[in-house]
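User: Hey, quick favor. My workstation is busy. Could you predict this chain's structure for me?
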Amino acid sequence: MSKDAVKKVVPAGRIEIYDTTLRDGAQGEGVSFSLADKIAIAMKLDELKVDYIEGGYPLSNAKDEAFFKEIRKCDLKHSKIAAFGMTRRRGVKPEEDTCLLALQKSLAPVVTLVGKGWDMQVKEVLSVSLDENIKMITDSISFLKKKGRDVFFDAEHFFDGYKDNPEYSLKVLAAAAEAGALRFILCDTNGGSMSHEIEDIVGQVHKALGVQIGIHTHNDCGLAIANSLTAVRAGAVQVQGTINGIGERCGNADLCAIIPNLSFKMGKTVLQKSSLSRITEVSRFVYDTANINLPLNQPFVGPSSFAHKGGMHVHAVQKSARCYEHIAPEMVGNTRKIIVSELSGASNLLARSQQLANMEDKTVVRRILQQVQDMENEGYQFEKADASLDLIIRKNLGKEDKFFDLIHYRAITQKEGPTDKVISEATVKLTVNGKVEHRVAEGDGPVNALDAALRQTLLGHYPKLKEMQLVDYKVRVVNSREASAARVCVVVESKDNESRWGTVGVSENIIDASWQALVDSFVYKLVK
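Assistant: No problem, here it is.
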């Protein structure tokens, strides 16, 4: 190992985080990032203080090539940018290889080179001799080292290769070390290795070569997180993965679970303590940017990760959160959520509402709980409709606010021919502060038109409504056996500059269910 490499050895107890969301994550089905998206995500990752951000493969497309130009204009405070690419092609000199030249041109301070670590792939995919594969690897690393780059070597299919021919797989890594690679990433490319195999092989490699090992796992067996943590136990000093585990096939190792597990469960130094609480924020930013619905039960960062619904659970959590929470949600930037539903007890309501918590008259609590249970029996759902629940509580406490009264509303949809555009129009007539207000608005659909008409009717009286916007709209059929006469449950999510909230409506008429949810959303904003 060179003197330069010795200076860059990872200290004991420290684990590097290498993020490949912008390259490996973008290969997931349905995931597509624009250049602006990639820059924005990179800046968020820098705020999280990940050690390395893999920007992409500069030879693969113009967008990735442009990323490395644009990111140089950004003021990164912590993260180093890495460019990804392959070793030189068979029979081509390094200085003439288009991939290596593109990596050099990217000016990324770190280059991650992928090479074959499985003899079967060398023979059947590359169609070269085993010795030629090693020469391709060493030539490429040496070329980039001479250009002043730190080189990480990704040994593709390493675990499959080691199981078939451990002598050759070790020979590949030893050659990469001799050529000057700084990190040696063992890749479970097919995602088919078991945790005990990962631990055994990483341990053997570490013992045989004594190099600084990284781990790159895929989730095809649902073990990417476990395999990454197991590799660290066996001596790996770098973990590669993606935010939320997005990636090809079943995805990559989820850094949103790996990072807190390393820090809070395994006592490793990872990122910086000041940034660990931003993990949930970064997770949801990536979901929003990729236009992916976030899974409720994602460990650590999911909206339901610290949600409590069973009355017995809530009662215990109020006395000691440790009863049903393995860490405090604030440690990863998440929040505790108390859910009120037909399964709830009085403890849920008391925990959910500060207004109720200090009430001595428990009959009010029981009355509200009975109302909630009756409404859920009709199809209402309050798990994602916290604002509607708050309004029910206020009404039962005699604190109902009358900002307006409905005179009537009407929504129509018109289409004259098979190729004509559908036109939706809504009319809303209200009494607001003793004055009759009547507005008409068009929209992309009847709900959009109702939203616009209601907003226009109220804005002159309540200008704060300008801050509010509808961000999500979901419909669920309640009693599907009734076919077209079935009730529907509509949940609307809204937001302003400070927070998000959900409201709900139920009716046999989807427009009326939507109206109920919209009205609750507007009223809640005015109550705020």
